[in-house]
Amino acid sequence: MDKIFYTYRIPDEGMLLLKNYEISGNNEDRFLSKEEIIKGARDASALISLLSDRIDSEVISSLPKLKVIANYAVGYNNIDIEEAKRRKIRVTNTPGALTDATADLTMALLLATSRKIVEGDRLVREHKFEGWKPGLLKGPALKGKILGIIGMGRIGKAVASRAKAFGMNILYHNRKPLLQSEEEELCVKHVSLEELLKSSDFISLHVPLMGETYHLLNEKRLSLLKPEAIIINTSRGAVIDEKALIKALKDGKIAGAGLDVYEEEPFVPQELIDLPNVVLLPHLGSATNEARREMAIMVGRNVAAVLEGKEPPNPVI
Ligand code: DGY
């Protein structure tokens, strides 16, 4: 019988779909080391992984029976896709399940940074609220401002439709522009990356992390931003050069940032933590009950399909 190994327990809705297989894994609230993954999954045909697990060539080549790696995430930059391809191992992900959750969190960060929600909360808790004052924690309104969306896939589009409802004017940059009908429906305009960076009041990133998007926002590109610009990142940390971002924030070259992701998670540089003009979250983009449940169901279906010799519903490769 095919064996399944999970590096971290996923919601029951997904596990239930796999109840007819021999399934084992880590039931503790901690990440497994590489050695533990290799040991636990040695005889497994399917590996259920988190984006926090590095499934590199060493792990993949140590698992001779592996047929599928089902990542409990839409992103799969934690997996050595080339190595999996070479070994004819399928890799699956969970597209769509977390689109709304991530778009909602992006809006939350847009509001939290512009309206200084975290600073306000801190001020009240520190008993520093002295009464209503005309200038207390003022920030820019979203209505009428330009939002630049980099990456117009599922999540980028979901952010655009929310931002439209807030009265924002939306520019976007994507490798491939949308159809005119889609642009009209979302009220978005395709521009070059340079124009987007120069014109936007808010910039939100929605690209996957890969070779061509690594440090997409580097020092040179960050220098194009307006001093009042606020950057929101709910995609992957390494899409922005974190050191260059810290410098731009420290030097007042940009106004602020709302970050859900970091270059070397879970490490968050102290310099970032010390900055007053940033809102920092611990990678919560997909953290709704609904999204996490749906992601688990997708993982269950993907694993079951491959083990039954069928095409998985969400193949990466
Ligand atoms: C993903 O799925 O890639 C998100 O970053 C976390 O759910």
From TrEMBL:
D-isomer specific 2-hydroxyacid dehydrogenase catalytic domain sequence ranges: 10-316
A Pfam entry, by short name: 2-Hacid_dh_C
GO CC, any one term: cytosol
The entry's keywords: NAD, Oxidoreductase
CDD domains linked: GDH
Enzyme class (EC, first level): oxidoreductase
Gene Ontology molecular function terms on file: glyoxylate reductase (NADH) activity; glyoxylate reductase (NADPH) activity; hydroxypyruvate reductase [NAD(P)H] activity; NAD binding
The enzyme's E.C. designation: 1.1.1.26
Domain D-isomer specific 2-hydroxyacid dehydrogenase NAD-binding: 107-285
Family: Belongs to the D-isomer specific 2-hydroxyacid dehydrogenase family.
The name this protein goes by in its record: Glyoxylate reductase
Lineage of source species: Bacteria, Thermotogati, Thermotogota, Thermotogae, Kosmotogales
Gene encoding the protein: gyaR
